[in-house]
Specification:
447 residues; alpha/beta; Glutamate Dehydrogenase, Chain A, domain 3; Rossmann fold; five-stranded mixed β-sheet; five-stranded parallel β-sheet; globular; binds NADPH dihydro-nicotinamide-adenine-dinucleotide phosphate
Length: 447
């Protein structure tokens, strides 16, 4: 059989033609294909079945209108999508994002990444992503609820506990998951684990809220251990102040590091004394309960607030936990010049391609598909608990999370080891994620 993809330039030029204007999706595929195409050339067993071509074409993209009524009685219309990318190893699984920057391209990039991430967890989950250009910022609870209910009127046709299990992402937290779940329950007349990230009163898993942020620090710990080093005593720069960032900061404090920054879309705070437990409690209340702006932290604790991003702060460790393309090549140069030892991505693709290239060569660098997989992993555990109708304890969930993050590190090391003993975590994650999905595609025939 002919192996159709041997040349990255030809492959990417075909992909760009088929998906015009989808820059985020192009970048995500380019990063993966750059590792997979050379791997395929050396591995006859994966040649000849168009595996990469099949994996870069979503199973389906569902696009729909969401109409809802705002508090003034105006009818509003937004657009939503669900990208069901690949269910070769399990039901589709991936978050929903509500943010004005959401486009089909962004969701295809995220859904594509999710295939590899979910595979790396070792759990039976396929790749998907969804969301809407609806902006929840500044909306009342009632408006958010009506939007979520309207969205579910359409989405419920395409999801189910054995079909597709959405979760949260940017702009979709416990409140939104609750509204989405409530509507699904009424529409389907079933109480089933169709969404993860649910509240603890209706089937959520203890430890899910913390899982992505804690997991990213566990992954960092594994990376530092390869150099005989640890988290304790390190200064850390963190971006974001949402779900991932808050619990990344929490675990850093617990393991003895000093996180000195946090940010939101208005700017960042720099606290040279470090964010401690008391300050973190304030930050959680500010962001999770009051939905306020990060500047309030600077006012309360007398530190600086600046517009922009926090990458000029001097730190040993970096954790971008806000959004995609938040670290430019120049930011990466600054971080490295300031003595950065390691960077683990909490967000998905926060580093622009030039930044990634530089970091990959200069420091311990973990791509999000490996280091932020703890969230989806505990979502997988939530599905298992729902199916068995039991609840595990926090200790049990955390223990499993630590094992999964360590296993992912092991896969990255296995497939990303250089002859000189160093580890290319990007290559390791790409190939480690690919082999399981590719084998499943082969074993199930051409469908
Ligand atoms: P949240 O909505 O809880 O928080 C997002 C944070 O990033 C907020 O502080 C937000 O600020 C900031 N932010 C968002 N967009 C921008 C932007 N364009 N510029 C500057 N700051 C921005 O999202 P999560 O914490 O859940 O997600 C963060 C990242 O982690 C995303 O890339 C997501 O895909 C990824 N991720 C999340 C997982 C999860 O379990 N939640 C799992 C794996 C990955 P503001 O409030 O001002 O908008």
């Amino acid at each position: 059989m002919k192996n159709t993809c041997t040349d990255i330039n030809a492959f990417m030029s075909g992909l760009r033609k088929r998906n015009p204007g989808q820059r985020e999706f192009h970048d995500a595929v380019q990063e993966v294909a750059s590792d997979i195409i050379p791997f395929l050339a050396d591995h006859k067993e994966f040649q000849g079945e168009c595996l990469l071509e099949r994996l870069t074409e979503p199973d389906r993209v569902i696009s729909f209108r969401v109409s809802w009524v705002d508090d003034e009685g105006n009818v509003r219309a937004d657009r939503a999508w669900r990208v069901q990318f690949c269910n070769a190893i399990g039901p589709y699984k991936g978050g929903m994002r509500f943010h004005p920057t959401v486009t089909e391209s962004v969701l295809k990039f995220l859904g594509f990444e999710q295939i590899f991430k979910n595979s790396l967890t070792g759990l039976p989950m396929g790749g998907a992503k969804g969301g809407s250009n609806f902006n929840p910022k500044g909306k009342s609870d009632g408006e958010v609820m009506r939007f979520c209910q309207s969205l579910m009127i359409e989405l419920h046709r395409y999801i189910g506990p054995d079909t597709d299990v959405p979760a949260g992402d940017i702009g979709v937290g416990a409140r939104e998951v609750g509204y989405l779940f409530g509507k699904y329950r009424r529409l389907s007349n079933t109480f089933t684990g169709v969404l993860t990230g649910k509240g603890l009163n209706f089937g959520g898993s203890i430890g899910r809220k913390e899982a992505t942020g804690h997991g990213v620090v566990y992954f960092m710990r594994e990376m530092l251990a390869t150099r005989g080093d640890g988290i304790e005593g390190k200064t850390a720069v963190v971006s974001g102040s949402g779900n991932v960032a808050l619990y990344c900061i929490e675990k850093l404090i617990q393991l003895g590091a000093k996180p000195v920054t946090a940010s939101d879309s208005s700017g960042f705070i720099y606290d040279p004394n470090g964010i401690d437990e008391e300050k973190l409690a304030f930050l959680k209340d500010l962001k999770e309960v009051r939905r306020g702006r990060i500047e309030e932290y600077a006012e309360k604790y007398g530190c600086t607030f600046s517009v922009g991003r926090p990458w000029a702060a001097k730190a040993h460790l970096a954790f971008p936990c806000a959004t995609q393309n938040e670290i430019t090549e120049d930011d990466a140069k600054t971080l490295i010049a300031n003595g950065l030892m390691a960077l683990a991505e909490g967000a998905n693709m926060p580093c622009e391609p030039g930044a990634q290239h530089l970091l990959r060569q200069s420091v311990l660098y973990a791509p999000g598909k490996a280091s932020n997989a703890g969230g989806v992993a505990v979502s997988g555990l939530e599905q298992s608990q729902n199916a068995m109708r039991i609840n595990w304890s926090l200790e049990e969930v955390d223990q499993r999370l630590q094992i999964i993050m360590s296993d992912i590190h092991g896969k990255c090391s296995k497939y990303g080891k250089h002859a000189n003993g160093g580890i290319d975590y990007v290559r390791g994650a790409n190939i480690g994620g690919f082999t399981k999905v590719a084998s499943a595609l082969q074993e199930c025939g051409v469908v």
